[in-house]
Specification:
The chain is α+β, with helices and mostly antiparallel strands and 136 residues long. The chain contains four helices and six strands; from the N terminus they run βαβββαβαβα. The two termini are 18 Å apart. The N terminus is likely disordered.
């Protein structure tokens, strides 16, 4: 679900009731901090009423401007790093937040910042959002 038009209006983004194991979360965090394409990332839970019975953890990643030129490569890189950090049988959906900037306010409000490699890029995105502009 990546095109913005596909996001249901009743989507609930909240702090996780069941976060990752702290050691696993640190591993995901370290791998994302080492990933040059990631500006910042959040790890809240998401519930899509009518489509899910329980909320699930979702990794929202904001990519650097340079990474947006090769979105598929960047998504693959982030997904590979996350998969290496997770135990066998565990997975996380990864959403490129640049492609769904209308979710930025809800993601930020959940207060689940996991990685902030580029504070300036995050502030730029937040400023654009506050001004009502698309922060892409």
């Amino acid at each position: 679900m990546s095109p913005a038009a596909e996001w249901p209006s009743e989507l609930r983004i909240e702090p996780p009731a069941e976060p990752l194991d702290p050691e696993v979360q640190r591993s995901v965090q370290r791998r994302l901090e080492a990933c040059p394409d990631v500006a910042f990332a959040h790890l809240p839970q998401v519930l899509v009423p009518g489509r899910q019975e329980r909320p699930e953890l979702v990794l929202f990643v904001w990519l650097t401007a340079g990474a947006m030129r090769s979105l598929r490569h960047s998504l693959n890189l982030v997904s590979d790093e996350v998969a290496r950090a997770l135990p066998s049988g565990k997975y996380l959906d990864v959403v490129i937040l640049n492609s769904a900037p209308e979710l930025l306010a809800d993601v930020e409000r959940a207060g689940c910042l996991l990685v902030e490699r580029d504070p300036g890029e995050r502030e730029r995105a937040l400023d654009a959002m506050r001004r009502g502009e698309a922060p892409v």
